[in-house]
UniProtKB/TrEMBL annotation:
It comes from Mariprofundus ferrooxydans PV-1. GO terms for cellular component: endomembrane system. Its main location: membrane. The chain crosses the membrane at residues 31-51, 57-79, 100-123. Keywords: Membrane, Transmembrane, Transmembrane helix. The lineage of its organism: Bacteria, Pseudomonadati, Pseudomonadota, Candidatius Mariprofundia, Mariprofundales. This is DUF1232 domain-containing protein. Residues 33-69 form the DUF1232 domain. It is found in: Endomembrane system. It is a multi-pass membrane protein.
Length: 126
């Protein structure tokens, strides 16, 4: 029973990510919701995670906490009728899931900034 609920929840997250991907391009969505929808969808569709999954426990934090919270926030910014339409279209898109190169580049840039900053701190102390 619980496994089925978990699968349904995961499917709804996937559908909502597709809906946000569409929302970022939809003229019925306010600009601020479009911007956040684009960010959340790009991050969720990025093949590279901010916190790599191979790191024990915290590696899955972004997948289990950050992405769903971002989705919930954006959904509240989009009118209900528009969101229902986007979800229907998102269901249709699940078979052809897009990848976000922009999201991957964004995550790589964050890692480069963090590594540069850490290297600078180590160099200053040495």
């Amino acid at each position: 029973m619980m496994l089925k609920q978990l699968k349904n929840w995961a499917k709804s997250i996937e559908r909502d990510i597709m809906a946000l991907y569409l929302a970022a391009r939809d003229s019925r969505v306010p600009w601020y919701a479009k911007a956040l929808a684009a960010f959340v969808a790009a991050y969720a569709l990025s093949p590279i995670d901010l916190i790599p999954d191979f790191i024990p426990v915290i590696g899955y934090l972004d997948d289990l906490i950050i992405v769903p919270l971002g989705i919930m926030l954006v959904i509240r910014m989009i009118p209900a009728g528009v969101m229902n339409d986007l979800r229907k279209r998102g269901d249709e898109m699940l078979t052809e899931r897009p990848r976000s190169i922009i999201g991957a580049v964004f995550v790589v840039l964050i890692w480069l900034v963090c590594l540069t900053w850490a290297g600078w701190i180590i160099w200053k102390k040495g």
